[in-house]
Design goal:
Elements: H1 3-17, H2 22-34, H3 36-45, H4 58-99
This protein binds zinc ion.
């Protein structure tokens, strides 16, 4: 097994699950077509019925990312509001202290 075969076998699970990058997918696909040894290995460990042609569901990934962004936004605005409130409170306390 040369380094290309080893690399392709490392990428094979990602390719099979449809989460490999476009470049990796192309590389694995091309190599599996050309190399009978890797093709045999791939077929042995990855059932043929699930053909890795489908693209991962980017809509779900996008929704998750958006939701995460909203959560972070909410958290950061809460944090900044709290900090501003604390600064004002501290400034007011300082003024009170000076008056005494
Ligand atoms: Zn190979």
């Amino acid at each position: 097994m040369n380094w290309k075969c080893e690399l392709v076998m490392d990428l094979a699970p990602l390719y099979y699950d449809g989460v490999a990058s476009r470049v990796s997918k192309r590389l694995v696909k091309k190599h599996l077509r050309e190399c009978p040894q890797c093709r045999t290995y791939y077929k042995k460990y990855h059932p043929v019925d699930k053909v890795p042609t489908e693209v991962p569901n980017w809509d779900v990934a996008r929704k998750v990312r958006k939701r995460r962004l909203v959560l972070w936004g909410g958290f950061l605005s809460y944090l900044s509001t709290t900090i501003v409130a604390l600064v004002f409170w501290y400034a007011r306390e300082q003024k009170k202290m000076k008056k005494i």
